[in-house]
Amino acid sequence: MSRAFVAFLVGSVLGLACSQPVDLILETSDPAALEDAGTFDAVARAVRGRLAATGMTPESVRLERNTLIVRLSNSPLPDQLPLLEPLLARAGRLEFRIVTDDGDASDLDLGAERDEVVGRIAGEMTLEALNAELAARPARPNSWQWYRRRDAAESEPLPLLDANAVHPGKHWSFGTNDLSKVYMTLDQTAYLAVGFELLPERMDAFASFTGNYVGRQLAVVLDGEVLSAPRIDEALPGRGVIRGKRDMDDARVLMGVLRGGVLLQPLRVRTIRPVK
Predict the structure, then answer these.
(1) pTM value?
(2) What span, in angstroms and rounded, lies between the C-alpha atoms of 61 and 68?
(3) Contact indicator for 50, 257 with CB cutoff of 8 Å
(4) Which residues have a Cβ under 8 Å from the Cβ of 173 and sit 6 or more positions away?
(5) Among the CATH numbers 3.40.50.1000, 3.30.70.3400, 3.30.110.170, 3.40.50.2000, which is that of 3-92+261-274?
(6) CA distances (Å), 191 to each of 53, 214, 246, 260, in order?
(7) Which CA distances in Å does 240 have to 146, 187, 261?
(8) Rounded to the nearest 5 degrees, what angle is found at the Cα of 132, between the Cα atoms of 131 and 134?
């Protein structure tokens, strides 16, 4: 985090600069790609949506040299400032996958593969590289991969089934762009959670998908990380709740990421400057 950003943070906490327009200066990993109009529009749309979902007021987005500049009609409030980095760093690719069990593994010993995965990760091999190696093995089903778990150590991954690959033609692949509504709520234990509803045209497919796997665990995955994996007790009619014992900032970031949509490039906050 830059000195200018820290200084702005301190000033905002003291209430010195909360009502004037500011420019949010963002660094991108691939500025050349943003010169394509379609890519720029998609990134700008996601940035606006994410900031607006958390109460900020984006007026415009422009590309200037190697930075993306977002004009906000008011400077972020002190409780919004900690949201900026995590809000703009995630791609926001949501998936719904079924936790693999022995029945999905056919003749493969799932427990033995789990032990191998845990051991290889302990040896500092990444899950991405390991999944690619496993997929290349002869006779090994490629309908599942190993995923990180948000609430567990790196050494405790989960094997997740791609139901769309197992049942081609059923369109059982659901992602961020299939959501029509995202909101903050409470789960059954009164922890903050994020609720969602799918687009009307995708609700029947989601009900069919979850109904086919009643009794199994449904993993909610964001950017390759399992956020939660509740048991499916009955077919879900196109809506659900993402649990996980979240604090307020975490829930607001997740809501903002899902409302804003997929961000094609991760962004980093360089600084915030007042508009002269």
Answers:
(1) 0.83
(2) 7
(3) yes
(4) 95, 162, 164
(5) 3.30.70.3400
(6) 20, 25, 7, 23
(7) 24, 10, 18
(8) 65
Name the amino acid, one letter, at 179.
Answer: L
- Whole-number Cα distances in Å, 11 to 6, 81, 84: 9, 11, 16
For 102-126, what is each residue's pLDDT tens digit? 777 777 788 888 888 888 887 778 8
Contact 252, 54 (CB under 8 A): yes
Q: Which two tokens stand for residue 268?
A: 């980093």
pLDDT tens digit sequence for 9-66:
544 444 444 578 999 999 988 888 998 999 999 999 999 999 999 999 999 999 988 8
List alpha helices for the chain, DSSP H. Answer: 3-13, 37-53, 84-89, 110-122, 127-135, 163-166, 200-212, 248-260
- Out of 3.40.50, 3.30.70, 3.30.1360, 3.40.1350, which CATH number does the structure's domain 94-254 have? 3.30.1360
